[in-house]
Write a structure and sequence with these properties.
Length: 258
């Protein structure tokens, strides 16, 4: 499928989605968000794809929601339109692993989009921020909630109240990103990581994703019980038998997602 604001490539088992509005530093407009939700839903439903990577350009992952598109809107416009609400829900419904590969500006809705992914790999050029306060608005796609869960209240308040940008080293230190690579090798390294994930049992990977996400959604006791029951459930799979047999036979497992 051809998109106007995305470049979608399937390499081996990975679907690489590049945000592509270079004239606006990949600012998220309605077209881009609609296409992104559609592309991710399609990748989730495509049996050949085992991992999704979202990236931008060297200059920007995304510099936020498109200010030109929002500037003249009223409360009732954005309330009834529920600006990006449906698209964000579609992105969060994706059950396969999703990795964000971030270089350059990753601001506002861009940072919120990266945080909707399962984890973030950054280039050493990445700059994260929630500068909405400078526009007289508050984050609207999860920034105040997700950034606070990633980095804690103090740094989240600092980011949202001052609108300052955080570099890749600080983002790694505070747990916003999992790894940092030189910008020139960001995509290559992220595709290697996606390739590693693609080798696993997709069934188990999806269970892992659900279990880790529970940690953000529920109490410790509920999350521990969910994890324990999912641990028990994995013993009903062929992939558990194969994984453990392969270990004992000192060979690579051949998972079948069953
Ligand atoms: C629309 C944008 C944009 C944005 C950049 N551009 N960010 N257009 N919306 N969010 C456009 C500029 O207007 C300009 O177009 C071109 O991209 C290059 O940007 P410059 O500003 O000239 O580049 P530079 O001087 O390098 O500065 C880069 C920047 C700055 C620091 C990233 O562009 C910036 O501060 N952008 C806005 C960041 C922001 O406030 N994001 C939060 C948005 S609110 P022209 O045509 O002039 O050349 C948000 C809410 C989400 O995200 C809630 C969703 C529900």
């Amino acid at each position: 499928m051809a998109y106007e604001t995305l470049i979608v490539e399937i390499e081996d088992y990975t679907c690489l989605i590049r945000l592509n509005r270079p004239e606006a530093l990949n600012a998220l407009n309605s077209r881009l968000m609609g296409e992104l939700a559609a592309a991710m839903t399609a990748a989730d439903q495509n049996d050949k794809i085992r991992c999704i990577v979202i990236t931008g350009s060297d200059k920007a992952f995304a510099a936020g929601a498109d200010v030109k598109e929002m500037a003249t809107r009223s409360f009732s416009d954005v309330f009834f339109d529920n600006l990006f609400g449906a698209e964000a829900e579609a992105i969060q419904r994706v059950r396969k692993p999703v990795v964000a590969a971030v270089a350059g500006y990753c601001l506002g809705g861009g940072c919120e989009l990266a945080m909707m992914c399962d984890f973030i790999i950054a280039a050493d050029t990445a700059k994260f921020g929630q500068p909405e306060i400078n526009l007289g608005i508050v984050a609207g796609m999860g920034g105040t909630q997700r950034l606070t869960r990633f980095v804690g209240k103090s740094k989240s308040m600092d980011m949202h109240l001052t609108g300052r940008f955080m570099d890749a080293a600080e983002a790694e230190r505070c747990g916003l990103v999992s790894r940092v690579f030189p910008a020139k090798s960001l995509i290559e390294e992220t595709l290697k990581i996606a390739g590693k994930i693609a080798e696993k049992s997709m069934l188990t990977a999806m269970v892992v994703k659900e279990a880790v996400n529970r940690a953000q959604e529920t109490t410790l006791a509920e999350g521990l019980l969910f994890e324990r029951r999912m641990f028990h459930a994995t013993f009903s799979t062929e992939d558990q038998k194969e994984g453990m047999a392969a270990f004992l036979e000192k060979r690579q497992p051949q998972f079948r997602d069953r």
